[in-house]
Amino acid sequence: MATTGTVEVEQKFDADATTPLPALDQLDGIGKVGEPTSHSLEAIYFDTQHLALAARGITLRRRTGGPDAGWHLKLPHSAGKRIEIQAPLGTADTVPVELMDRVLAYTRGHAVAPVAALTTERTSYPLYGKDGRRMADFVDDHVRAEAMFGEPRELQWREWEVELASDVADHALLGTLTKQLADAGAKPSQRTSKLAAALGDAWPASRRTERDEPSGKDPAAVPVLTYLDEQVAEMLLQDSHVRLARDDSVHQMRSQIRRIRAVLHGFSALFEPTAVKDLERELKSLARILGRYRDVEVLHERLKVSLEELPGKLVLGQLGDELEERMALRANNAMSAVRNRLNSPRYFTLLDNLEAFLKDPPLTPKGSAPARKTTAKLVNKAGERLRKRHNAAVATAVGPEHDKAFHEVRKAAKKLRFAAAAVESVHGKSAVKLGDAAHRVQSILGDHQDSVMAREELLKLGSAPGISNGAFTYGVLHAMESTAADATLEKYLRKGKKARHLRLKK
């Protein structure tokens, strides 16, 4: 299995072959330089024929030699930081499944193969603070590279690297060391990575969209697209967690999909309708597949807790075991459907289309209008939709239609919440306040919807053939859920008013 990922905090420098080492013991914050260690490292880098990983700042390699020999996967984290995940060496031509599962959302079904081979003669110097604590490592690398992609070529260079120790949180130290090394004549490297240097002109353009911090004077589409960039990146991250069966990962990925879809819907006036509708349709279908598994998770936990909290004399029959068996079967079937979708051409096409939309958005005139006024109008429209659905719900007679109406209120609150979140960079605290109020409504009515689903399931369980005395227990639980649902509606009526009346200023 892969080791736990660590976050790398580092800075690279260009150095000539004859450049003398800097006086490491004279650097601020460094009390002692440890004994150097030398290793000969050989690494093979893997990517698709389209360099899909490189285009997203991801590196996948198998390295021999040195203390961390094995497979390494490096994923972007933030400026100057990367997450590194490792796996044992295994075989040279088979990428470990736990690493490939983390990048399938990027490779999208395309095979990976060697694209470059690097040999590095490395000397590493541990740097200790005045208290004896290891603070960082200074690395002197002499690199020989062979490109195996595009035009074959070989080249050599030297580079230095300063990397903070994994348990050092003082990132200001890296800035101090970087400045002092630069003052001593070292040049911060223009290479994005050793692989980029090896591939040269074959290195692909970045698939990650770079945008400046939005403001109210920008076109209205700018803050929305910036928000969508972040949500799509997080969705891709959650994709790998789902494939690795991480706890709560299906819920998190489904939430990201819903955020993306809600924002596309709420700000659809900024973009040409056909592209938005196509994306919305596919996102809705994907969320529905994930939702089947997530609904089983929520329902199972709710009914399990309710059964455990009942006095033993009210639990007739082996209902706990029956519930476990029933829910396990449904969960397995639902997860199989999730895996099938995530490995399908349809899903990979959706990811391609999302990235294409973000890279070259089909704007309408409203998308180019001033952000503050235009986005306020669209968010307030979502707020008005919430108010109208509330009025319709409270006017509905008690029964299934009543429950359905309040579920529509919840969905409207969720869309308002995400719409407000998308424009926080423009509207600041007022958008945060509105989003928080909408989230409160969403959470309260989410509890109500969970109760609705639990009551539907309890009716099925209680009326199943051969249920015998267990029907009594399910009846008790059904009555408890009805009481809980009434309580959540009362809570909503007390605390939901703010979300229905708050608006953004234009």
**What is the chain-wise order of helices and strands?**
EEEEEEHEEEHEHHHHHHHHHHHH
Give the radius of gyration.
Answer: 28 Å
Q: What is the percent of helical residues?
A: 40-55%
Oligomer: single chain
Strand content: 15-25%
Enumerate the spans where pLDDT stays under 50 for 5 or more consecutive residues: none
Distance between termini?
A: 53 Å
| Biggest sheet features | 8 strands, antiparallel, barrel
- Overall shape: it is globular
- Mean pLDDT rating: 90
Computed structural class: alpha+beta
- Biggest sheet strand order reads 1-6-5-4-3-7-8-9
Please report the total strand number as a whole number: 10
Discrete helix count: 14
In summary, what is this structure?
With 506 residues, the protein is of the alpha+beta class. Helix content is 52%, strand content 18%. A hairpin with a 5-residue loop joins strand 4 (59-64) and strand 5 (70-78).
